[in-house]
Amino acid sequence: MDTQISATQKCRTTTYFGGGDTDDNTALNDTDLNCTASEGLPAELEEELAMPDISAKQLGKIGEQYATAWLAQLGWRVLARNWSTRFGELDIIMMTPEHLVVFVEVKTRRTQRYGTPQEAITPHKQANIHHAGALWLAGPGKSIRRTGIRFDAMSILMEGNKPRVQHIPGAF
Q1: Burial, 115: exposed, middle or buried (Cβ in 10 Å; 0-12, 13-18, 19+)?
Q2: Backbone angles phi, psi at 130, to 5 degrees
Q3: Whole-number pLDDT of residue 39
Q4: CA-to-CA distance for 147 and 132, rounded, in angstroms?
Q5: Which residues pair with 89 in a beta bridge?
Q6: Fewer Cβ atoms within 10 Å of its own Cβ: the N or the C terminal residue of the chain?
Q7: pLDDT greater than 90 at residue 93
Q8: How far apart are CA 103 and CA 72, in angstroms?
């Protein structure tokens, strides 16, 4: 599918109160664009994201860790991270509580100088992620019970010392 992810595309997130096991958390609200949900996430990751002297590569790695923790709060389970193929790397592969396998592309930025983080996921990059996802699913030991697959985007944009998270389910 050749679609550019726009800055106005909706994101959906549920903000949770509470810590620990997600079964003990209570859903607070569903929101659209400009989502935040840092309650209960490791403070050290937020502090690392806010450090101005880290490289873009380090920022991206920490952003992926933050995204993984953010999705884990929703009850998602990590299947793989940073899985590499000739088509590139799959940032995060997770399983939702509904047994949906989700390939998550994470983009983390300090500013919007060159556009929003999700705009960096070009149609060419999307095609490569689809190919890599198909290879992962066809790999040994990947015949896990699932209800379907989906390709999501997560955008993390630093606003001061706080990350603003946009999760775009089914982005491409």
Answers
A1: exposed
A2: -60, -45
A3: 62
A4: 19
A5: 84
A6: N
A7: yes
A8: 14
pLDDT band (50, 70, 90) for residue 141 = confident
Phi–psi pair at 132, nearest 5 degrees: -65, -40
Q: Which among 12-16, 28-32, 135-139 has the top mean pLDDT?
A: 135-139
CATH of 13-168, one of 3.30.1330.30, 3.40.1350.10, 2.60.40.10, 3.40.50.1000: 3.40.1350.10
Tell me the pTM.
Answer: 0.78
Name the pLDDT band for 112 (thresholds 50, 70, 90): very high
